[in-house]
Amino acid sequence: CATMRTSALLLLLALPALVRTQTLPGHSKPVAYHLDIHVPDLATTSTFNASVEINVTVTTSTDSFVLHAEGLDIDPSRVSVQYHSRLRGWREEIVSDVVHNSSFLDIKLERPGLTGDYIITIGYTGTFQNEMAGFCKVGYHFNRMQKYMAVTNFEPTNARKVFPCYDEPPHRTKFVLDITVNRSLFVLSNVRHTSVHNVTDTTKVFRFDGYPELPIHSVAWVVLDHNTFQLQTSNVGATLVHTRAPYPYSNHTAWANRMTASLLSALKDYTGQVYSHATLEQVVIPEFFVGSSEGWGLISYSEEAILVTPERSSAWYMQQIALGLASGLAHQWFGDSVSMDSWDNTWLTTGLTEHLKYVVTCSLEDMKDWELAEQEVVELIQPALALDVNGHALVDNTQTEAEEVKEACDDITKYKGGAIISMLHYILKDNAFKRGLT
């Protein structure tokens, strides 16, 4: 039957990915993170103080915990490990050494621990990144005054630049985030804050709880000055769509906000899967040269990726904005709600979002004149053939280092992955393809 053919073809495509790449020892896995970050005055400092508690399950007895940690100043005196004994409850383990190199943090125990539940607590200082990877500080102007905001971008391997973690695809975990900021600032994250209260005369703390189990690259937050941003709102069923932009750009987000609502509805119809988030937040980040960062329920965009003036913008420009929005929304399904279990499958999630952005956008009634199905051949498949003239393996089981993973998330992977999914869709026809997705 068609469903069996779909499953068989997808399995054949995925076979090379059955060889897993692990960069961390496999004796423990994270269950939950509790991250506590103190964001200072953004105008005067380039660092932040933080601590993280990681609930982990140890499946094989070990005398060390190895985590990803890049560019962080770890304080060994603020590192501790607790073990949960059924008879004695939580007890402190003796940490014999804390070794931190450029990419990894190795917490060594005095003696091998038993299997079971542990809590690892780590205090450290982090640095705001300038290359839009990790936790980034961004400057912009409002009423001729210099303002600052901060935004995260964890894809593909940048969470380790913000807190020690298991920065690998297989792990989906719960999160709690406490973030202390100046009282003039506001914080957005994947879920709505559960509480906010003043800490001092100048600071307040936002708590975010109730995250579903997420891959670490899908966690996101934005710190901004609420008074310098304007909000556009629309809704799709029970889901609110919010688009926030600094006031100089706020008059140019209405079209994108309405388009997002239409695309979100179209994706729900096409996949047959309800978007489970109560609110989708979109934030315009000045000079955010990565284009977009797709957290679950919170997507950050550069100005060029979302701002539209319908009476002056060209049809081609509006097409590109619509396709970019569709790609970010498709990522909510394929990348966030369903995530890859290995770096080897980067091409599959990227390819699905690249192809589906054309499928979903051209399904909208007022977009059918754009002939996007034909444009996909020119904009996706032909570039894949041109870039792949020397051959490019979509699956590379040798990827272990962060830079190798980033190099794998290149244009060839995007175009070639999208082209393969597009051709598979053409062979299977629409009904069988959709059943294969769901």
Q: H/E element string?
A: HEEEEEEEEEEEEEEEEEEHEEEHHHHHH
The major sheet is characterized as: 9 strands, mixed
Beta-strand level of the residues, as a percent range?
35-45%
Q: What's the CATH C level of the largest domain?
A: Mainly Alpha
Rg computed from alpha carbons, rounded to a whole number of angstroms: 23 Å
Basic shape: globular
Please tell me the total number of domains.
Answer: 2
CATH structural architecture of the largest domain: Orthogonal Bundle
Helix content: 25-40%
Give me the secondary-structure category.
alpha+beta
| Record field, number of beta strands | 21
CATH superfamily of the largest domain: Neutral Protease Domain 2
User: What name does the CATH topology of the largest domain carry?
Assistant: Neutral Protease, domain 2
> Stretches where pLDDT falls below 50 for ≥5 residues?
1-22
InterPro entries: Aminopeptidase_N-like_N, Aminopeptidase_N-like_N_sf, Peptidase_M1, Peptidase_M1_aminopeptidases, Peptidase_M1_dom, Peptidase_M4/M1_CTD_sf
Subcellular location: Cell membrane
Keywords: Glycoprotein, GPI-anchor, Hydrolase, Lipoprotein, Membrane, Metal-binding, Metalloprotease, Protease, Signal, Zinc
Membrane topology: Lipid-anchor; GPI-anchor
Structure characterization notes:
The protein has 438 residues and is α+β, with helices and mostly antiparallel strands. It has two domains: 28-129 and 157-214, Immunoglobulin-like (Sandwich), CATH 2.60.40; 229-437, Neutral Protease Domain 2 (Neutral Protease, domain 2), CATH 1.10.390.10. Helix content is 26%, strand content 35%. It is built from eight helices and 21 strands. It has helices at residues 2-14, 254-271, 315-333, 346-361, 372-387, 402-408, 411-428, 430-437; strands at residues 28-38, 47-58, 62-68, 73-85, 89-93, 95-100, 104-113, 116-127, 134-142, 145-153, 172-182, 186-189, 195-198, 203-208, 214-215, 221-224, 229-236, 239-246, 279-284, 292-295, 298-301. The strands form four sheets. Strands 1, 2, 4, 5, 8, 11, 13, 14 and 15 form a nine-stranded mixed β-sheet that branches. Residues 1-21 form the signal peptide.
